[in-house]
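In the laboratory, one determines a bound structure by crystallizing the protein with its ligand and collecting diffraction data. In a computational setting the workflow is compressed into a single prediction: the sequence and the ligand go in, and a structural description comes out. We illustrate the idea with heme C.
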Amino acid sequence: MRVALMILLGLVIGILGTVNVMSALDARHPMPKAVMHTMGYHMGELAHALKAKQCDAAQVRHHLERLQSTATDIVPVFGIAEKDFTGKATELQTRLQQALQPAPTSCAALATAIKPIDDACKSCHQQYR
Ligand code: HEC
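The predicted complex, in C-alpha cell form:
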C-alpha cells in the first residue's frame, strides 16, 4: 500500500514538473511572431506614409529606429543558428543602419531607403517562412 502511494506521488510530481516545463516553453513561443508583427507594423506605417505622400521626418526616423532595434531580437528569439539565417538577419540590420544615415526627410528619400530593407525581409521569408 505504502509503495503504491509512493509510486502515485512520484507520478503526480512528474506530471506537475512536465506541465511546468511545457508552460515555460509555451511562454517563449509567441516571441518570434511578436518580433515579426512589430516589424510588420512599422514597415506598414512607412508604406502608408509613402502612399499618402506624407513623410514626416520625425515619424519616419521613429519607425526606422524601431525596425532597427527590433531586428536585433530576430536571432536570439528565433534560436536558429544556421549561418544563412543569422546572415540574413545581420543583412537586415546593416540595411536599416544605412537607411538611418541620414534618416530620410522626404518621400523620395524614404522610397529609396526602404527598398533594400523590403528586399532583406523578402529574402529571408523566401527561404525560412
Ligand atoms: C532572418 C530572417 C527574417 C528576416 C530578415 C525577416 N523575417 Fe519576417 N519572418 C521570418 C520567419 C522565419 C517567419 C515565420 C515565423 C513563424 O511562422 O513563426 C516570419 C514571419 C513574418 C511575418 C508573419 C508573422 C506571422 O504571424 O505569421 C511578418 C508580418 C514578418 N515576418 C515581417 C517581417 C518584416 C517586415 C521584415 C523586414 C523588416 C522581416 N519580417 C524580416 C524570418 C525573417
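The chain has one domain: 30-128. Keep in mind that any predicted model is a hypothesis to be tested, not a measurement.
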